[in-house]
Specification:
This protein is an alpha+beta fold. Helices cover 26% and strands 43% of the residues. Helix 3 packs across helix 5.
Length: 289
């Protein structure tokens, strides 16, 4: 592969171009332009511009006897829809999924209206060009003077629309999400329907994973209060800003929240993770109910 590789790991895969009727072992390589599935005998190249859909989790029914967790890439070749089914060990599949979507959809210049609605009411927000960045559990929309972050754990609903911009009908993702107890609607207009489908799939997969993970987490009242305090501080703060009593007790609570992946501790201090944001949203909604 001549271009720079952004992912390279061993695994098993199946494509319609392989002669075997079951998975083969090889290497999975991803660049900014293409996906390559290579064995010692042959390789399958899938241009990212040909990818039309991606799914993560259980493989198609016909391949459940061969695979466990997989990433299925659907793409067009010679006008026909084909699929590449990829499996790897450990966290490679999860990492590959994130990197794949970042590469296939991230970095796009999109037209954003935020918030198009606030509490169900149409606003006078104008359209502006922004750069789309994908992260685990969130969308970042970066403009010249601002960055709009959509926490996918706070998504209430999303769907597809068509918008008339500059005399052209363009595909748009409409995302309803909760922020500080208020429902906002953000409109993201993409260059074409193919990329809109991929972005919609990323939002759905990330949201589903966040909610599945939260079902297995028990959070105490003191931990919820700490999360809400962090949220009230703007979503990021130093430990000293959260202390209302004994600093050692607060540190212990924060350590528990980090273990549960509800809080990160980085260069900017403590920050809410997408999972932590969901719990805060649920708390605010219960208070406002």
């Amino acid at each position: 592969m001549s271009e720079a590789v952004v992912a390279d790991f061993p695994g098993r895969f199946f494509t319609e171009e392989t002669e075997a009727m079951e998975p083969v072992k090889g290497r999975i390589l991803l660049s900014e332009k293409q996906l390559v599935l290579a064995t010692e005998e042959a390789e399958t190249r899938v241009p990212l511009s040909a990818v039309v859909d991606t799914n993560v989790g259980s493989p198609p029914q016909a391949f459940k006897q061969f695979f466990n967790d997989t990433v299925t890439i659907q793409y067009k070749k010679s006008g026909e829809r084909q699929a590449a089914i990829i499996e790897a060990t450990g966290k490679n599949v999860e990492k590959f999924k994130t990197v794949f979507f970042k590469t296939a959809v991230g970095g796009q210049t999109v037209i954003v209206t935020h918030p198009a609605k606030r509490g169900g009411r149409i606003t006078d927000a104008s359209d502006r060009k922004m750069e789309l960045k994908l992260k685990r559990g969130q969308l970042d929309l970066k403009g010249k003077e601002e960055t709009v972050t959509v926490d996918l754990g706070g998504v209430i609903d999303f769907g597809r629309e068509q918008r008339d911009i500059g005399g052209k009908t363009r595909p748009t993702l409409s995302v309803d999400h909760s922020e500080a107890g208020t429902t906002l609607t953000t409109l993201i207009t993409l260059p074409n329907s193919r990329k809109l489908n991929l972005l919609g799939r990323f939002v759905r997969l990330e949201y589903s994973e966040i909610m599945e993970d939260l079902e297995e987490i028990n959070v105490g009242e003191e931990e919820i209060e700490t999360l809400v305090s962090l949220y009230s501080a703007g979503g990021s703060a130093e430990l000293s800003m959260l202390v209302t009593g004994d600093i050692n007790e607060t540190r212990a609570i924060v350590d528990q929240l980090q273990e549960k992946e509800l809080v990160d501790d980085g260069e900017d201090g403590l920050t809410l993770t997408p999972k932590g944001q969901v719990i805060v949203n649920q708390k605010i909604e219960s208070v406002n109910a």
